[in-house]
Amino acid sequence: MSLTLYHYVHCPFCVRVRMALGYLKVEYKSKVVPYDDELTPEKLTGKKMLPILAHDTGAMNESLDIIQYLDKNNALKVDEYLTSHSFKEFESLLSKIGSEVHSLAMPYWIYTPEFTETSRQYFLQKKEQKRGPFSELVKNQKTFVDELKPYLEKIEKDLNPFYQSTHFGLRDILIASHLWGLYVVPEFQFSEKMHQYLQSIKLICNFNYHQDFWSQA
Asked: Three-state DSSP class for 28?
């Protein structure tokens, strides 16, 4: 089976698929798509939405659908997660975390190696329409950190050593993929326990944030 992952390096939904691929030890070809490239994703699935997994019979969006497709032996139990009584509550937690992480990290993501000057300006224009000037996001960092803090504390209390479990699972990937973007924010620092948790997931998932970018550069 031939697999190609089209993705953005910074995108948490792309990161979760990369983590799952690493954990499942599935070989794939990586294609980091410039953020201002609208044609590639639209040709593959009809919309500018990543990640996209192209396989022998077609291409698909939606990170959880992709992980479910890849997980032939049900090691990550996507079905069980989607039908669990805690699904909506956990997805709400991820959404709240994601909102604060994006406000903190976006002004820094655009200066990472995956962006060119043209894709940086495209990203800036699109995201500032929704979140306001990036300069104001940086000025308001403390507010975003304060709003994020109780969610991180909630997660940290439930680490045993993985999220609500003694065993690694899908929810650890979903948490880590959102939080990983905060490593780019120089003013933010994880607690030691949270840092060690994220680093353990990195090892379990054979994950290297910029490896896919540098390997095709």
From this structure: coil
Chain centroid to CA 213: 15
Give the model confidence (pLDDT) of 67-106 as tens digits: 999 999 999 999 999 999 999 999 999 999 999 999 999 9
Q: Which helix (H) or strand (E) holds 24?
A: helix 12-24
Instruction: Give me the CATH topology for the region 80-204.
Output: Glutathione S-transferase Yfyf (Class Pi); Chain A, domain 2 (1.20.1050)
pTM: 0.95
DSSP label of 116:
-
Nearest C-alpha neighbor of 62 from the set 2, 106, 20: 20
Superfamily of domain 4-74+208-216: Glutaredoxin (3.40.30.10)
> Which tens digit of pLDDT belongs to each residue from 106-162?
999 999 988 999 999 999 999 999 999 999 999 999 999 999 999 999 999 999 999
